[in-house]
Structures are given as structure tokens and as C-alpha cells.
Amino acid sequence: MIAIAHDRQLLGVLAVYAVVVFSGLKSFALWDQVRLLLDASPLAMILQGHPHTLRFLVVQPAVMADRLGIDPDPAWTLCCFLLVVATALLCARAAALIKGPGHLIASDKVACPLCGEVALRAPALAALGSVSLFMNGRLIPAFAGVALALAILAERRAGIARWTWVPGLLVALLLASVSSGTLAVAVAACVLAWLAAPGTSRWLGAVVAGLGALLVAAGAWKALVFFKGDILAALAHGPGAFLAPLGAAAGGVILVLLGLGLAWALGREPSRRPVRLVVLAAAAAGLFGWSTLAVGLVPALVVLLAWAAPEPA
Question: Which residues, in sequence order, are CB contacts of 173 under 8 Å at separation 6+?
């Protein structure tokens, strides 16, 4: 917190973003799916196995505001503002950590070959704050969830031991549950975070990876059922719509793109491979939904921020 208070660049960007949000120029309203549930009981929803239970739990601060007679939309705007700031701080930390412990200093700064020493927090917030101006209130929790998983991944890979990483990954999954696609990306990030620590048991890692694959497969099956098994119709739901006119050839194009993406993800700089794999997961799943593709901006930002620093000597 002291380091943040001394980061003048961050405080400047934070002040501008706060003015934009709290002046009313930008707000984040609850989406209809959860607005219809404002009077529901979370416990009853959990016991009933309601499909939107997790999303309802995510917006509990706005629900509590509504029950206190406060407009839930301004309350959710405040929550989204805080989540965007948290996402930026987490991305900056993850980027500094994947450069190696020697690059992580009090204010998450790295040496940039273009402009000398630069604090990562301010550009991270500037980028995410700008993107959030074009977003509604639904995806922002997913951004925070994926960023939290990436920060834990980077800490574990750097050998930083914390007892909070397991509950942290659970919180990351909860935040990302606002969309099936974003949840799939968060599952990939959480599995990689689990496997990231040096000395992780291969057997336990295989179990975790298998459970993650089952969760993703369950989400994919749910999507296929929704689209009645029509993969082209599912593609039309996202940027894959540009490939849908190719018919069966679309599958070949997707495989080629995934192959190129995998070659990039597994390329040089091993410390960045897990984060690049999350970018690839978001890009692959994002073919079927714009929101899923959008959450890929978080790991992409981490990769971009990390690129700003040279490799440790």
C-alpha cells in the first residue's frame, strides 16, 4: 500500500478514471439476468441448483444495496471501479513476477528498453480503464478473476508460498463465472497456476488437469446442446462467424490457427509460456463468443507488460 501511495503515475491515472466513472460519464449497470433475481434468496438458489447461482453470488454487494433501499446500479458501478483497479494491480504484479523475482521491486517496476524504469501499475490501469469504458458491468468481474489466477500463477512459479492461493483460485473461478466462456478461461488459468509451482506432484497435477478438462468439456457440451449440435451456429455467436461461411473448411482453418498459436505460446521465454497458454485458451474459446475473446485481453496485457523488460541477466 505504501508503494502504491508513492506511485504518482498510478495515482494520476486513478484520479482521471475516478472522475470519468463517478461523474456519471461511465456507469456499470446490473445486467437483466441478475436484475430479475434481486429478491431471490442465495441459499434457496444454491439448494435448488439454480443455473445462475454463481453469477448471483458475484453481485451480492449490489443485491445488499438494493435491500437497503439503495439503487443497485451505482453500487455495482463502485464495485466495478474497484475490480478494474484490482485487475490492473494484479496484472502488474504478474508481469513483474514472470520476469523473475529480481525484477519485482516495491512498486512493481521493470527496466524498459524504450523508456528506462517504468512502473507497470499506471499503464496497466490506463489500458484496462480505457477498455472498461466500452464494457458493461457483466464482464469486469471475469477480468478480475482471470487476473487473480494469473497473479497466483506468477507467484507460485516464482516460488512465493502463500496459504491464500487455494481460496484465491476459488474466488477467481467465482468471479469468472459470469459467463460460461470466461469461466472456461479461468479454469485454464487456475489449472496452470496449480501446476506452476516447482516440485508439484505430477500425479496430483494430472488429477487437477483432468478435473479442469472435465469442467471445460461440460461447458462445451452445454453450449453444443444449446445450439442443438450445430457447431457453425455456435461459431456464429462470436468472431467465428467470419469463418462460418467456409463451412467444413472452417475446421481446418481453426486447426491451423491453433497450431500457430500453440507454437507461439510454447516458444522462447519459458517463464511466459503459462500466461501465453491462457491467451491461446481465450482465443480458442473466444471463437464461440465475444465475451470469452475479450477476457483474453487480461493475459495479453500481462504478456505485453512483461515484454517491456529485458530478460534477467
Answer: 145, 149, 183, 186, 187, 190
